[in-house]
Structure formats: C-alpha cells, structure tokens
Design a protein that fits this description.
The chain is 38% helix and 18% strand. The protein is of the alpha/beta class. The two termini are 35 Å apart.
Length: 285
Amino acid sequence: MNAIVATLLALVPPGGHVVTTTDCYSEARAFIRERLSKMGIRSTFVDLNNTEKLKAVLDQDDVTVFYTDSLTNPHLKCIDIKLVAELCHRNGTLMCIDSTLASPINQKPLTLDADIVVHSATKYIAGHHDVIAGCISGSEALIKTIRAWHQDLGGAISPDAAYMIIRGLKTMALRVETQNRTSLRMARLLENHPKIEDVYYPGLKSSPWHHVAKSQMTGFGGVVSFEVASDLHGAMRFIDALEIPFIATSLGGCESLVQQPDAVVHDANFNLITCVGFCFHQGSE
Ligand SMILES: *Cc1c(COP(=O)(O)O)cnc(C)c1O
Ligand SMILES: *[C@@H]1O[C@H](CO)[C@@H](O)[C@H](O)[C@H]1NC(C)=O
Ligand SMILES: *[C@@H]1O[C@H](CO)[C@@H](O)[C@H](O)[C@H]1NC(C)=O
Ligand SMILES: CC(=O)N[C@H]1CO[C@H](CO)[C@@H](O)[C@@H]1O
C-alpha cells in the first residue's frame, strides 16, 4: 500500500484526475475514492469490461494517471496493457499497473509500454507469507519523483524484511511455475464440477479474458476464484470442510490459502471463494 500511495501522491497534482477500474484492489480503490478526493483529486471508476467507456474517459485529455490491477483482485480480469497504454499516451496520461496477481515471472508490463509497475512483494516475490513489502519499477525520472514521497511517508523497508525478500526471490521462478501448473489443474477440475457455478481463471479457455491474458502473460498465476452453487452459509460450510488450505488472506506463498472475500465485504457475491497457492499438493486432488 505504501508503494501505491507514494506513487499516486507523487504523480497526481491537486486538481488531477485518476482513472481506475471497478474490480481493483479494494484498499487502493478506497484510497483513491476517499483520500485523494480530499486533496481535490478527481477519480473515475470504469468497468474493465467496458472498453468504449474507458476509451471515452481517456480521450478527455485531463487524466493524470490510469491505475489498475491486471490481473484484478479478486475476479482475475485483465486489461490489454499495450492497447490501453497507447490510449493513455496519446493524451499524456501515465499508466500504472499493479501486476501483483500476475507475478513478475508471468507478466512484464514495462515491456508492454506501462509507465509504472507496482508489486506487493508480500506475495510472489517474497513468497513465504512472512514479510510485508512493496516495490515499484519504471523510468529513472518517475522513480526519482516517487522516491522523495516514499521517504516522506516513512515506508522504508527494514533490513530484516529486505533480507527475507532477497532470499525468497531465489525460488520465485520455481514457485510461480509450479503454481501456474497446479492452479490451472485446479481451475479445470472446479470448472467441471456440478456444484461449482462459476470459475474465474484467465488460463481457462472458457474465460472471457483468456485471449488477452494469453497474449501478454506466460502463465496465469496461483489464484483461482470460484462460486459454489449455494449461498453464504453453503460457501462457509464448503470452506470449513477443506482439509489442505488455511483460511487466510494473502497469496503467492508456499501454503495453499482460501478466503471468502464477501463474508467480510458486503457488496457482491456471497458465495465467491478465492483460493490461492496449490503449491505443494499435486497428488492430492
Ligand atoms: C495484497 C495486494 C496489495 C497490498 O499489498 P500489501 O503488501 O499487503 O500492502 C496490493 N495490490 C494487490 C493486487 C494485492 O493483491
Ligand atoms: C486525445 O488524443 C486523441 C488522439 O491523438 C485525439 O483524437 C483526441 O482529440 C485527444 N483528446 C483531447 C481532448 O485532446
Ligand atoms: C462483458 O460483460 C458482458 C455482460 O455482462 C458479457 O457478456 C461479456 O462476456 C463480458 N466481456 C468480458 C470480456 O468479460
Ligand atoms: C513463466 C512460467 O513459469 N510460465 C509457466 C506457467 O505455467 C504454464 C502451465 O500452466 C507453463 O506452461 C508456463 O511455462
């Protein structure tokens, strides 16, 4: 969050305009809507599905930053990064992608013309659910601007956390490759199960996002979201009956985790379940 906040504060002046998407990390959305607005910064939320609206908004020529997750948390939608970067750049808008759910192994937005890439290093980069950190990448000029704000905000990483990340990075490629594979298997298994209503995973051919995801990602990551054919309590029973995943909120580590986002956030599908990891349980379907 510190990486996200420092980036937005550094790049968007008072009177600026941030465009973001409706299915985006909820804390980042809340920061844009509730805090940036107090500084006279306007925000517009566009459904990623609505390319026409996105195009119209970006064509207004007053957008400072376009900010979104790709893949999004929790519905795993994605954006055509190269296409939208072009729309941004022709009107002087900076494109910032939170690429956390893709991981740096599966997606490299800077090579697709994004200006700034944010990762929660808490997830795939550190990879062991034992550290909280974030990182940003981009041109030297942009990073220099953001760095000044980062220091003011006091978000300096501790040496201990930095060490854990350096250590975790050494196995990131191996972890992500395994998670790509086991998650795709899990998504297919769920897709064919009669008691599962919907599965959201861009690696599935049936996903409306498959085509775009495939064109810009080498793998689809370790998070699978799905809806059980039941209600809130049915989904709770489902989760409580699971033997392998821990009930916890994070992703990208070595344990399989499961969460029910809407058991705590009351604005969408109560039967939505997000499952992450599937790392070391390949034989145990
Ligand atoms: C977890 C997450 C964050 C926030 O990361 P922290 O390291 O917990 O601050 C931001 N964006 C996305 C997409 C995330 O999944
Ligand atoms: C944004 O850029 C496009 C392409 O250059 C141009 O057609 C459009 O008029 C621009 N919008 C504004 C408001 O200048
Ligand atoms: C967009 O939404 C419509 C209606 O909800 C749906 O039919 C379509 O498949 C969606 N497209 C994508 C890319 O998700
Ligand atoms: C970069 C990477 O590891 N990609 C892998 C992701 O998973 C798929 C299988 O689902 C592999 O084919 C990719 O090589």
